[in-house]
Amino acid sequence: MHTxxxxxxxxxxxxxxxxxxxSPARATPPNIPAKATAQAELNTLTVAAETNESTYDxxxxxxxxxxxxxxxTRETVLKRDGSDVVVxxxxxxxSGSWYSPYDGATWTAASDLDIDHVVPLAEAWRSGASAWxxxxxxxxxxxxxxxxxxxxxxxxxxxxxxxxxxxWQPSVASYRCxxxxxxxAVKYYWGLTxxxxxxxxxxxxxxxxx
Length: 210
Prior knowledge:
The protein is of the alpha+beta class. The chain has helices spanning about 5-20, 35-45, 75-80, 120-125, 135-140, 155-160, 175-190, 195-205; strands spanning about 65-70, 70, 85, 95-100, 105, 115, 150-155. The protein is built from eight helices and seven strands.
């Protein structure tokens, strides 16, 4: 069981003794659109019923792949989203600190983190990816250019599973604007469809943006 207070307390103690900031870098995937851009993209997305749910297989989205040297996609995101991350010669994160924006928890062990696919692989499959080539699905599953991958608390990622925003949203309400913009950007770039309930939820979340 995770013990957030203990981990946070350890970080604060370290900050006092070293003079370093107590808070780690916040996970920030690239190319999150502004509210106006996200709204325009949401308006153009096709609303359609999901299909092919029974034929989904996670192995049809090969990941994690090698990105550079010995570093795969997971390790690359951990380095990007963490603070003071130290890695081994095999690119495994051996120390660092990570803030999970979904739930506001801070972790100092990489094993406490999952790399979330903002638009889950199964959700993508049901929204059009079932018609893609395996190569295209691999690119989607390892997409470091769009705001599709983010380091978050592992149990939160597992609880989210393959749900869309109509049934799952970050517990940190102030992050829902960002989450909606990320979700919309990914679906727009990859040409995926939306369910009507999903679009309604995204619009509600966008409306919370300043």
